[in-house]
Every structure is written in structure tokens, then in C-alpha cells.
Design a protein that fits this description.
682 residues; 14 helices; 33 strands
């Protein structure tokens, strides 16, 4: 892709008041003076790793693709260490009798024990796996694995992988270890494969020097390949400890899959360098999972190409469900350290349109809390945030949306994913944004049913309220939309399927709903003339696409007075120009000129800039245009209009009422009409 010319630096003589929020509660404020000769810069962030792997400072990386998206069936990877005849030396030893009992239990529940290579092929290429797939792994190369485990594996006919650290092969430490001859015999007989577990088994690879790390991962692989005569493909981190620096070296060494000791199922989507395993003491959890009824809905990972196109806006009145949307261009996210209304965010970011973003932790209307649910990365604003550790298990299965300039991915979230910016990069190279949505509304072009939506465990998903949503349509265009009528999510999904949406996820809704073009709030969840849009900590933005520069561009030079209420971090970068260098894995761009008016982190609602037309009386978006979208069946009224740059300039400056051709659709009236219809249905 050709790069546009670098943006001109903005001079920023201002004092920005920050509200620092921890757990959704304002904890304090600090003033920062930004040099008038320097543009705003992005500061480094910190990630959080699973409990088994405490965090270290994230490292700026540019990993090759390591996201595994093709698998459709999860597998349990079981981990053992030494297998003794009797008298366990440590808690993670297992006796021969215990191992035999566990293998019998797997057989009883119908587990299909598969080679590790089959799991990899399933995740990478979609190779079919049997139901109830289980992988057996043994760490450290103990002699007991030869004397006690291997005979049992042969008896049951179960394949396994032995992870060996090369520095102790044939050496007696506190325990005896297998010899090279024994390892070669295992390889020759074919039931057990030998893979890598470093040279010296350091307890924490994150703490070793670069030189030692390179030796542990490269030398051990080379020695195993020389001794066994084949390529070594897989790695188990000692004690499961790794971070993105370790993963980078593992990738560069040529490993294709690397395992931690974090409990969890191995499935798609997967980060190839952070695959979880169950310790043998969690066999009860594994068996329960194998015997469990298949979930009502399991999303398949979708990584889709974004097709550059002009901006287009439209509406559809589908009986009791009225939706509006704007699609096309390029999408970017902006996150604040406080909250602000979407029109103000659009002004500062020089965007064409915007919508409130994902769910935030503190739902109180008057709160300044800026924490969001799940990991979040944005092109504009503060650094990556991993989300609260306690949220990760709770939101498993919800849509993780990852956006780059060329791709948009919709992935069922797994707790081991996206712990730092490099983790997001491993999933989608060049990612600028990621966040976790509330639920899928449409998946692979099909509206989810009521029963399928229940799987997301979202308490208000079936409440009657205005809804905000985002996604990509069948033409590859990103889109933002909202329903101005109060709808249950399953009813809304039926309408979105008619529009021709390919993937669509639910965003924070109700009062937060705020679909905005320029300064016109098209759909709002507040219905108050004095407050056109509720302040939010995260917004999604659309920019027109310039085919000449192959990048998005700002649509208007906003005046300085328009920016006085923007609340962003002093290190925020909020320019839509595409040529700025990535910072800390987030690809954030340079910031806007905020003028010399003081910023307010959470400006009083009364001071929020009003739209040209009160939201409750906003005119319709129904404009003469291209007619019904293909695939719409039976809606009363559907229109779409392509926006030229000239039209958009006028539209952004003067609002909808200056743009001819619009009807008199009143969202407040539509909401009352919908409530009457719902009452009659009862």
C-alpha cells in the first residue's frame, strides 16, 4: 500500500484535565502541559497476562501472522509430568495406577485421543477432527514416562507428545531422564512424538537475557532435529511462563505452536504461541466438557476483506423496527480516559460519522468511568487496555472485533487471547483496533435466533430499547447503525439480515445509542432536546476513502471553538491520516489541533454541544437514492444515498435540515408507534 504524505505537526498549547479512572470510578485528576512545538505522542502501555503468567512490560513487536482461525471443534490438551510406580515425589507426579485410571475414564466417555499434529492441522487448515478430541502431553522427559507411561499408551493405543529439555537427556538430576536412544525408539515406533521444552528448563523465560532466550529456544530445537532426523514444530514453555518477547523468539526459531500451562480448551480462534493445557488434576473438568451438550450457538471465526468504497447512508422501516446506518469508507476507534458525546468526538477526530462503542464497566449515566468490558485497542486515544481479569471468563464466546486497514475480523473471544498489543497483532497483522461486543446479531449472513442469543449471557439483550450495532455488509463495507425503535435484539437481527449484513455485533445500547453524521444525531437513546447524545468512553468512526492515496482523509477542518469540550488523554493521537508510524503495536496516528480552549474530561451534560436539530425532531435519512438493497424482503420503506465529498462537506457544516430530499420521519413518533403495535400484539 502506498503511504500518504506525513501529516503536518499540530501545535498544542493547552492544559488538558484528565480524569484517571480505575474500575469505572473517577480516582483523581492531573494537569499536563503539552509543549507548543511538539505533537501529542502515544505513551507505552502495559498488558496483563493470565494468572499463571504474571505480566511483564509489553514489548513492541511486529510478528508474522500467528492467528489460527479454521478450526470448528475445540480439543482438550492434557498435561502430565513424571509417571511413577508409587510414592509421588511432588504434587504434579502421577502414579502408574492413576494414569491408567485416567486413560480408562477417557475411554469410557468416548474421548478420541489424537496426535498433536492433527490438532494443529485442524486449527490452521480446518482438517476435520473427531468429536471429543483429546491430546496427551508429557513434560520434562522423565524416565518414568518411558517405563510407566509408554506401556500404558501402547495398551490403549493412545498417541502422545513428550516435551523434552535437551540439557538433561540421559542425565540424572533429582530424577532420572530418558536417553537419546530411548527417545529415538519412541520416534521410530511412531506412537509418541518428541518436541521441545528448551535446553535447561528455566522457570521463567520472561526473565532470562536475550542471549539465553535465543539459546534455550534455538539450540534445543537444533539438537532435537539432529538427533531425531526431522523438523521440530512444537514447544512447551517451562512452567508455562511466556510473554510476547518470548513468543517472538519462538516464532522466529520456526515453532508453529507453543503451549502454556493455563487451563482452557484449545480451539479457534487461537494464538499459536499461547495455547492452553489442562493439568491432569483437572480431568474432571475435561470429562464434564466432553459430556456436555453441544452449545446452541458456536460462532466460526470470520476474517474478511474490507472493500474501499464511498460513504453511503440509508434507512429501513421494517414494520415495527426502524434502522438507520452509514457504511463504506474506513473505520477507526477512539477511546477516552473520561466520557464525551459522539458529536464532539467526531469534530475532534475530523470524521464523517460515528457511533457509541462497546460496553463500559460503569453503566451509571452520570459516571465519568471510562473502563470497558474486555480488551480494547484503538487507533486513537490511550494505550491498549487488557480489561479486568475477572471479565475474561465471563465474556468468553462473545464477538472479539479486530480491525486493520485491510481486514475486519469477528472472532469468538477466548480468555487467552489479546493480552497485549502484540497479542492482537498476532491475530491480525496491522491491527489498529480491537474490542469485545455484546453479542452477534447476524453471523455469516444469518440472523441469530432468540435461543442462540441466550448463549451470550447478556442480561438486557431482550429488553425493548434502541440498539447500536456495527459490522460489515455483503459487499465488504464497514457499517455503523442503530435502531430508533425499541426492539429486542432477535427482532432487530431479522431486519439486519434483510439489509444484507454479513457480520453484525451488538454495541452498548439504550441510553448510550448515538448514531451521528457530522453534528447531526440521527438516532439517540436519550430522547431529550437538551442532551443530544449520552457521553461515552469509546466511539467508532467512519472516514471517507481516497482512492488516489489509498487512505482515509479528514472531511472538514473544524474550527477551534468546536474542540473545546473534547476529553482525550494528553498522549492521545486522533488524526485520520494513515501515514503515521505505529506506536506500541497500536498503529495510533497523530493528534488533532485542539486549539487553546481548556479541555474538560467529563463536561456537564448541559454544556454538551447541541445538534442543529433536536434529536427528538430529527428529520428522516430517507433520501432519493439507490432504492432497496438486494436481499430485502417485505420492508415498508428502504432507501440509501451515496454521499459525495461535496455533499458531505455541506452536510457536516449545516446539518440534515440544509440537505434537501429528506422526509419528516420522527424517531420519537416511531417509538410510540412501535409501543402501540407491541401492546396490540399482547
Amino acid at each position: 500500500m502506498s503511504q500518504p504524505s506525513a501529516p503536518k505537526p499540530y501545535r498544542l498549547p493547552l492544559l488538558i484535565a484528565l480524569t484517571v479512572v480505575l474500575g469505572g470510578v473517577a480516582a483523581g485528576a492531573a494537569a499536563f502541559l503539552v509543549s507548543p512545538s511538539s505533537p501529542l505522542r502515544q505513551s507505552g502501555g502495559s498488558g496483563t497476562f493470565p494468572s499463571f503468567s504474571p505480566p511483564t512490560a509489553p514489548v513492541e513487536l511486529a510478528l508474522a501472522p500467528a492467528g489460527l482461525f479454521e478450526g470448528s471443534r475445540p480439543a482438550a490438551v492434557l498435561m502430565y509430568h513424571d509417571v511413577v510406580k508409587s510414592g509421588k515425589d511432588v504434587s504434579f507426579d502421577v502414579t502408574r495406577a492413576e494414569l491408567k485410571q485416567q486413560l480408562q475414564q477417557l475411554k469410557k466417555v468416548g474421548a478420541n485421543v489424537i496426535p498433536l499434529a492433527d490438532l494443529y492441522d485442524h486449527l490452521r487448515t480446518g482438517k476435520e477432527l473427531p468429536e471429543k478430541a483429546v491430546v496427551l502431553t508429557f513434560d520434562d522427559g522423565y524416565l518414568g514416562q518411558w517405563e510407566n507411561a509408554y506401556p500404558l499408551l501402547k495398551k490403549f493405543g493412545y498417541p502422545a507428545t513428550y516435551f523434552v529439555h535437551t540439557g538433561v537427556v540421559g542425565v540424572k538430576t533429582s530424577k532420572d531422564h530418558m536417553t537419546w536412544e530411548q527417545l529415538q525408539t519412541l520416534e521410530k515406533e511412531g506412537l509418541v512424538s518428541v518436541e521441545c521444552h528448551t535446553v535447561t528448563h528455566p522457570d521463567d523465560l520472561r526473565k532470562v537475557s536475550d542471549t539465553q532466550l535465543d539459546r534455550e529456544l534455538n539450540e534445543s530445537k537444533k539438537v532435537l532435529e539432529e538427533k531425531l532426523g526431522r523438523k521440530i514444530r512444537f514447544l512447551a514453555y517451562p512452567v508455562g511462563n511466556a510473554d510476547s518477547r518470548v513468543a517472538k523468539v519462538a516464532h522466529d526459531a520456526g515453532y508453529e505452536l507453543a503451549f502454556t500451562m493455563g487451563p482452557g480448551w484449545a480451539g479457534s480462534p487461537a494464538d499459536a504461541f499461547f495455547v492452553p493445557r489442562f493439568g491432569f488434576h483437572r480431568l474432571r473438568d475435561v470429562v464434564a466438557g466432553l459430556e456436555a451438550t453441544a452449545p446452541t450457538f458456536v460462532a466460526q471465526s470470520q476474517v474478511l476483506d474490507i472493500v474501499p468504497s464511498d460513504l453511503e447512508m440509508g434507512s429501513l422501516d421494517d414494520e415495527a423496527c426502524m434502522v438507520r446506518w452509514i457504511c463504506g469508507g474506513r473505520m477507526a476507534g477512539l477511546r477516552l480516559i473520561g466520557r464525551q458525546d459522539v458529536p464532539t468526538i467526531i469534530k475532534a477526530a475530523k470524521a464523517a460519522a460515528g457511533l457509541n462503542g462497546t460496553f463500559f464497566s460503569d453503566a451509571r449515566v452520570n459516571s465519568a468511568g471510562a473502563g470497558v468490558v474486555g480488551p480494547i485497542l484503538n487507533r486513537f486515544g490511550p494505550p491498549f487496555a487488557p480489561g479486568l481479569p475477572g471479565d475474561r471468563e465471563r465474556i468468553a464466546g462473545r464477538p472479539l472485533v479486530v480491525i486493520s486497514r485491510e481486514k475486519m475480523a469477528f472472532l469468538p473471544f477466548r480468555p487467552e487471547l489479546a493480552f497485549d498489543p502484540a497479542g492482537v497483532e498476532r491475530l491480525i497483522p496491522g491491527a489498529t483496533d480491537c474490542f469485545v461486543g455484546g453479542a452477534w446479531l447476524v453471523h455469516q449472513g444469518r440472523a441469530l435466533t432468540h435461543a442462540e442469543m441466550e448463549s451470550f449471557r447478556l442480561s438486557n439483550i431482550f429488553d425493548f430499547r434502541p440498539r447500536a450495532f456495527m459490522g460489515i455488509d455483503s459487499q465488504g463495507r464497514p457499517f455503523l447503525g442503530a435502531s430508533s425503535t425499541g426492539n429486542q435484539s432477535d427482532r432487530l437481527a431479522q431486519t439486519l439480515e434483510k439489509i444484507g449484513v454479513r457480520e453484525c455485533v451488538l454495541l452498548d445500547s439504550g441510553f448510550s445509542t448515538s448514531l451521528t453524521v457530522g453534528q447531526q444525531v440521527l438516532v439517540t437513546g436519550l430522547m431529550r432536546k437538551d442532551i443530544p447524545a449520552r457521553p461515552v468512553p469509546h466511539a467508532l468512526l467512519l472516514y471517507p476513502y481516497d482512492p488516489e492515496t489509498k487512505s482515509e482523509r479528514p472531511v472538514i477542518e473544524w474550527g477551534l471553538d468546536d474542540l473545546k469540550l473534547l476529553a482525550v488523554a494528553p498522549d492521545a493521537q486522533v488524526s485520520p491520516d494513515a501515514g503515521a508510524a505505529p506506536v506500541n503495536g497500536g498503529s495510533q496516528d497523530a493528534g488533532p489541533d485542539l486549539g487553546n480552549a481548556p479541555a474538560a474530561v467529563n463536561a456537564p451534560l448541559a454544556n454538551a454541544p447541541a445538534a442543529d436539530t433536536p434529536a427528538s425532531n430529527a428529520p428522516s435519512v430517507n433520501a432519493p437514492g439507490n432504492g432497496p438493497v438486494p436481499g430485502a424482503n417485505g420492508p415498508k420503506e428502504q432507501t440509501a444515498k451515496r454521499l459525495t465529498m461535496e455533499e458531505l462537506q455541506v452536510y457536516l457544516k449545516d446539518g440534515l435540515k440544509s440537505w434537501p430530499g429528506h422526509g419528516d420521519y420522527d424517531p420519537a413518533t416511531a417509538g410510540r408507534r412501535h409501543r402501540r403495535r407491541r401492546h396490540r400484539r399482547r
